[in-house]
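Example record used in the benchmark description.
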Amino acid sequence: MIDFFGKIGANREKAMKVLEAIIAVWHGKPVQDVLNEYQDFVFQLPGYSFEYIVYALNWILEQEDVNFTGRP
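Model output (structure tokens):
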């Protein structure tokens, strides 16, 4: 969350694209598709790289899908 807050401080429009990408991953869109779609919109933001965020989030969500029945 603190990383996202830093991104909002740097560029709110680009940070909101990161949030859109996170939502796309939540909805099951393949990571590579999300990277291809949003990479050009979110470059030069501070903090964790966009690629790291999207892959890490996907791994976490896959783990939780194993523990529970899936995402609504």
